[in-house]
Amino acid sequence: MGSPSGPPFDPDDPDRARRERDTEPIPRIDPDDGPGYGAGARLSDGPSFSDDAGYGAGPGYAGEGRSGRAWARDPEAGYLHPEISEEELAGLRADASGATPRRVLPLEDEPSSLVARYLFPTERYRGEWKRHWVHLATPIIVGVAATFVLGYLSGFLAGQDVGALTTIAVLLWFAVMGWVAWRVADWWYDRFILTNKRVMVVNGIITRRVAMMPLVRVTDMKYEQTPAGRALNYGTFVLESAGQEQALREVKNLPNPNELYLRVVEEMYEPQAVEARLGKEQDEAKADDGA
Fold first, then answer.
1. For residue 19, what are the contacts with CB-CB under 8 A and spacing of at least 6?
2. Tens of pLDDT along the chain (291 residues)?
3. Contact 207, 172 (CB under 8 A)
């Protein structure tokens, strides 16, 4: 027989242990434990990983790691997903241009006694708005002008010793002030109302007028703002309903027209989103009251 191939055995060879380790056959692993990842695999059996490999308390993944982000295991998917804190989300509140998402102005939870009588029980109240104060611009200007003009005229007539004309001037001033007070009261009772089913306008002091349009019948809606309206934040709403004649078409001098426009459109197209947002706001209010 010939001699075996390879270098002769040398007990002092420093590379002998490395060669024996490299040429050692890899033992078979139980298939139930997975290919080299099972819990029963030994370190000497080759490369193996525990169930939590890559997700343990190591740098960059643990709660005290480099990112400071906590990770939680999804029992169904079998992987870890990050729990993003509110502080981390704070930087995502604005887009690249610096614009922030729309903030919805808070509304009263319950309708006023003036409006509640016109709502039926299954209707969800969304808000009511008085017209912008610019609606009173004409009465206020007339009242101020009448006060100065008739006051000066009364003083002048009193010096001329014509008491009858002075009395007429004073009565005329009272009449103008009565008209101004009437217009202010009419403005106070004039309301634009939004529910989950319709929009309404209620006005009038002695003779009440109630105009209504169902949201499902609104085919087109727009608002217009003059330069003065943009400066003072008011506008005119125009609603169309299938080309038919309607009681509610043009509503002038409504405040915050952009906010109001978005509320109406959201109620028409995303009622579930409105319900979810209002429910969240109510839960937060209850939590604050409890705290």
1. none
2. 444 555 565 666 666 666 666 666 665 555 555 444 444 444 444 554 444 444 444 444 444 444 444 545 555 555 555 565 665 555 445 555 555 455 555 566 788 888 999 998 888 898 899 999 999 999 999 999 999 998 888 888 777 777 688 888 889 999 999 999 999 999 999 999 999 999 999 999 999 999 998 888 888 888 999 999 999 999 999 888 876 666 688 899 999 999 899 888 888 888 777 777 666 666 666 666 665
3. no
Q: Which two tokens stand for residue 268?
A: 């028409």
Amino acid at the residue 204: G
Residue 111: Cβ within 10 Å count: 19
Residue pair 71/83 in contact by the 8 Å Cβ criterion: yes
Q: How many CB atoms lie within 10 A of CB 274?
A: 17
Decide if 179 contacts 139 (C-beta within 8 A): yes
**How open is the CA angle 201-207-213, to the nearest 5 degrees?**
25
Residue 235 to residues 175, 223, 229: CA-CA distances in angstroms? 31, 6, 6
d(CA 289, CA 291): 5
Contact 195, 125 (CB under 8 A): yes
What number of CA atoms fall less than 13 Å from residue 73's CA on the CB side?
Answer: 9
Instruction: Look at phi and psi of residue 130 and say left if phi exceeds 0, alpha if psi is from -120 to 50, else beta.
Output: beta
**The pair of three-digit structure tokens given for residue 157, joined into one six-digit string:** 């007539």
How would you label 231-251 residue by residue, b for 16+ Cβ within 10 Å and e otherwise?
Answer: ebebbbbebebeeeeeebeeb
DSSP 3-state of 94: coil
Token digits for 194?
Answer: 């939004």
> Which residue do the tokens 């690249």 mark?
96
